[in-house]
Amino acid sequence: SSGSEENDVVVIGGGPGGYVAAIKAAQLGLKTTCIEKRGTLGGTCLNVGCIPSKALLHSSHMFHEAQHSFASHGVKFSSVEVDLPAMMAQKDKAVSTLTRGIEGLLKKNKVNYVKGYGKFISPSEVSVDTIDGANTVVKGKNIIIATGSDVKSLPGITIDEEKIVSSTGALALKKIPKKLVVIGAGYIGLEMGSVWRRLGSEVTVVEFAPDIVPSMDGEVRKQFQRMLEKQKMKFMLKTKVVGVDTSGDGVKLTLEPASGGDQTTLEADVVLVSAGRTPFTAGLGLDKIGVETDKVGRIPVDERFVTNVSGVYAIGDVIPGPMLAHKAEEDGVACVEFIAGKHGHVDYDKVPGVVYTHPEVASVGKTEEQVKALGVEYCVGKFPLLANSRAKAIDDAEGLVKIIAEKETDKILGVHIMAPNAGELIHEAALALTYDASSEDIARVCHAHPTMSEALKEAAMATHDKAIHI
Ligand code: FAD
């Protein structure tokens, strides 16, 4: 390895933040090394996050459709069954193909890739215990911390990845649990709960807060929860887990109302703890070089992604902001642009968020609650998918588009979509928000017919004027 020569940029962590930063740095002509301890690139997202979860969501959706929808479309067969090992193998193949692909991209861009655990010995030197048992020191003028995040448990609950699993274990269960309890109604819990619900598990989601996915627009959230309940997902909101007993065959949970009161018990074969993620900086030696972290372990940075130690930067899940792969990538590009003397920019208010259930729920910009809290006068335009011809044509018409615009200027402030492919539809809205478009701007764009995108156009019409098809 060329580790002993000084690099312009050293990136610790090969997740979506780190590997993207490394590629961009090399493309900008900077000599770059990327250090990753896992043995494969792509980080949480590719190895145990976004990608394997989307693989299983798709496979389980196909099974569910085959069981419940094909017949009404005139497609009949005598029986349908799940081959779980084959389903897992397809997921694993997707992951391994993509991780190898990223390794190829690093090579193509001449990024030096060091497989091992990095730890600071000075603000410009990282000691790496390599996977093959050696040690090397990597030097860099600029060092980017992109060490991401890790699963978080709850007090008194030990994750064994068998009976009590994190999202990582939930992506690799060896059999379909009869009863699955999900602790935490965030997007990861609801996505993984959906996978196993479709494959036949009875799923109960226990959540301390009064609502599921707290960041979601309230009105959309209500419809979303109803839709999940229709899919027979059960919710116990305002409920806390106060005891976990794994001594028997399964798991016995003791529950209590969030505000205190009578205890109840709930049995499960498998419990998924999805109560959030925590920044990962273990063994990195931050204290050694004086890099500060905040109360919850994140590394504060300035607008150029510099930590309190000059020459040391941080990006992605390890810094404040939405813990999402695409946000980590944007951070990585902007950070490296600053290092190269250019200008980088990431607007955390315009990072889209997607829940990949069926239908999907996607949003960008502000919720109605947030706009209200700002005291801005606003208009809301809505269009139900039930009135969209494409959604009706394919008999998948649950959902809506909701647009919130400033009353005085019609400038779009937030867009919320529940639709089968909301995660794709949202980008038209992200583009509109980025260019400060008005709802009239969207309404006047010719949209192809029949598409679900027309629902966004109609909602835009309804925001400043009237929709046609309702
Ligand atoms: P990470 O991806 O966590 O990568 C950090 C890397 O650094 C890791 O590979 C780690 O091994 C390595 N590392 C850490 N310390 C060291 C060290 N000292 N030396 C060397 N290497 C080190 N986000 C989305 O946007 N869309 C989704 O659909 C989505 N689904 C998800 C589903 C699940 C089940 C989970 C758990 C997460 C999901 N996420 C999703 C979140 C997403 O995975 C993260 O936001 C994203 O991976 C953050 O990227 P990162 O580069 O900051 O960190």
Written overview of the protein:
With 470 residues, this protein is of the alpha/beta class. The chain has 14 helices and 21 strands. It has helices at 16-27, 43-48, 50-68, 84-108, 167-170, 187-198, 218-230, 286-289, 325-339, 368-374, 389-393, 422-434, 439-443, 453-464; strands spanning 6-12, 32-36, 112-122, 125-130, 135-145, 149-151, 164-165, 179-183, 202-206, 233-236, 239-245, 251-257, 264-268, 270-273, 277-279, 312-314, 353-355, 360-365, 378-384, 400-406, 412-419. β9, α7 and β10 (233-236) form a beta-alpha-beta unit. The chain starts with 5 loop residues before the first strand and ends in a 6-residue tail after the last helix. Flavin-adenine dinucleotide binds at residues 12-18, 35-38, 43-45, 49-50, 53, 117-118, 146-149, 167, 188, 280, 283-284, 316-317, 323-326, 328, 356.
Oligomer designation: single chain
As residue ranges, the low-confidence spans are: none
Strand content: 25-35%
What is the total tally of β strands? 21
Major sheet description: 5 strands, mixed, barrel
Could you tell me which ligands this complex binds, including any ions or cofactors?
A: flavin-adenine dinucleotide
Give me the Rg, rounded. Answer: 24 Å
The secondary structure category is alpha/beta
Mean pLDDT: 97
Percent of residues in helical segments?
25-40%
State the distance separating the first and last CA atoms. Answer: 64 Å
Helix count from the secondary structure assignment: 14
- Order of strands across the main sheet: 1-2-3-4-5
Q: What best-fitting shape do the alpha-carbon axes yield?
A: globular
